[in-house]
Amino acid sequence: MNVLVTGGMGQLAKSIKDIEAKYPNIKLHFKSSTELDITKKDTVKTIFNNQTFDYCINCAAYTAVDNAEKDSDSAYKVNELGVKNLAKECHIDKVILIHISTDFVFGGSGPIAYTEKDETNPQNVYGFSKLKGELAIEKSMNQYFILRTSWLYSEHNKNFMKTMIKLASDRQNLNVVDDQIGTPTYTKDLAEVIFKIIDTKHDNYGTYHYSNEGIASWYDFAYSIFDEINSDIKLLPIKTIDYPTPAKRPLFSVLDKSKIKENLNIHIPHWRSSLREAISNLKQ
Ligand SMILES: NC(=O)c1ccc[n+]([C@@H]2O[C@H](COP(=O)([O-])OP(=O)(O)OC[C@H]3O[C@@H](n4cnc5c(N)ncnc54)[C@H](OP(=O)(O)O)[C@@H]3O)[C@@H](O)[C@H]2O)c1
Asked: Which N-terminal residues, if any, form the signal peptide (predicted)?
């Protein structure tokens, strides 16, 4: 099977690459943003015309949540228009699209985990732009998987886990918010699920939620990272109101994973055990 991977230098794409050898029947074609800018319709067309793909994994996205508030044009260009370009070509060429979306499409009032049927209500430009991308896919095609996930981290690129590890050596004290609740998700676990969808030729298309198991605040996540690396940094819990950011965040964005667990018959690792694995992989 030939699989196109957009956003090929992003952290999720790199985690997909890390485990590709386990699936010799799947040939991945990674395209960086310079090789394939998904906002350029003609470039997208050319890539699809030059090669036959069975699947397209869209890891390309505008992910700078705070910058999106000021630079909304860029966020919509990539997360809505770019996704629409991919969806149209996938539909024409009968390519199954696996698209990654976000818990930030939800409002975050809690306290019950969001199912795929729950109403969306994004709180910031990034969330709106990602929702528009989902809608563009739903309008353009039928053979798609939209995987909504949350709080991605890995040994690759810049992310919360790596920032905390760096701060552990630079700082003696740190304040982290404890009133935003969600689930940290190791991109390697998400990558495994993407491969499972392709490898099993799963055909119950639609929207699915996937994160690691368990719930945490950013404070819990930071605490566990420092615990894992034996840091003695002094960590203090603070409230969101005391840490203003340009983009408003949902206070509760836990995802209900019942649908994906039933459909793919998978066991999802708890975020705490995946964090341990990620830190061990980072050390290597
Ligand atoms: N990170 C999270 O916490 C999180 C949480 C929930 C959902 N998600 C979703 O998960 C997916 C993967 O996220 P990630 O953390 O792997 O993101 P990432 O590391 O920021 O990777 C995104 C990639 O997209 C590329 N890109 C940006 N604009 C592009 C364009 N016009 N054409 C082609 N590629 C473009 C970027 O390339 P350049 O760097 O060259 O611009 C980057 O390599 C995204 O859809 C994101 O919305 C992420």
From this structure: none
